[in-house]
Design goal:
heterodimer, A: 117 residues, mainly beta, seven-stranded mixed sheet, four-stranded antiparallel sheet, 11 strands, globular, B: 114 residues, six-stranded mixed sheet, 12 strands
Chain lengths: 117, 114
């Protein structure tokens, strides 16, 4: 298995539920990212992890809680979500946090489609 | 500051005709530029990237893009559209000096008419 794998692919939850999204990368990368993709909006960067340390949090509400136990796995823990949190959540990875020379691409998973009832 | 403008939110072409998806960028430093494609219910797949080597970049599935610094453009082209090209396309700029943060355009939806 190669690339970036996200589970589950679809998730429906009530506003009071607690659930987690999982991302796993098999590329040997050191940086991982969570993005939110809503209809008619540009991708929103939520969190960045480099070598398992959170290096960026773009003013994301506390009802989203990321976890990076090792360089291959990234979780997004969800609790008390709102209807406007319904979106496609994308995980990505890249070799390093900083591009340096060469412009490293980010590799994306297929996302988790989240629907809040 | 970095930003990307995709000039068309929707493009429709007939199968077998050329595709042109336009992207303009602004960057304070020498940029890296990328095009990604997203098919329905899928993640973003890298089509091609520019990183200060050749200005004409060839990618997968017959796509290519030309970096024009004087015009701050990085338009995506394909000589002949295929039905399977119907998807959402994103232009991305990354500043190599300040890090690998990606700045995404709002996307262009490509429709291919049989």
């Amino acid at each position: 298995e190669t690339g970036v794998t996200q589970t589950p692919r679809h998730l429906v939850m009530g506003m009071t539920n607690k659930k987690s999204l999982k991302c796993e990368q098999h590329l040997g990368h050191n940086a991982m990212y969570w993005y939110k993709q809503s209809a008619k909006k540009p991708l929103e960067l939520m969190f960045v992890y480099s070598l398992e340390e959170r290096v960026e949090n773009n003013s994301v509400p506390s009802r989203f809680s990321p976890e990076c136990p090792n360089s291959s796995h990234l979780f997004l823990h969800l609790h008390t979500l709102q209807p406007e949190d319904s979106a496609l959540y994308l995980c990505a990875s890249s070799q390093d946090r900083y591009a340096g020379t060469g412009g490293q691409p980010q590799h994306f998973g297929d996302g988790t489609r989240l629907s809040i009832l | 500051a970095q930003s990307v403008t995709q000039l068309d939110s929707h493009v429709s072409v007939s199968e077998g005709t050329p595709v042109l998806l336009r992207c303009n960028y602004s960057s304070s430093y020498s940029p890296s530029l990328f095009w990604y494609v997203q098919h329905p219910n899928k993640g973003l797949q890298l089509l091609l990237k520019y990183t200060s080597a050749a200005t004409l970049v060839k990618g997968i599935n017959g796509f290519e893009a030309e970096f024009k610094k004087s015009e701050t453009s990085f338009h995506l082209t394909k000589p002949s559209a295929h039905m399977s090209d119907a998807a959402e396309y994103f232009c991305v700029v990354s500043d190599r000096v300040t890090g690998n943060q990606f700045y995404f355009g709002t996307g262009t939806s490509l429709t291919v008419i049989p």
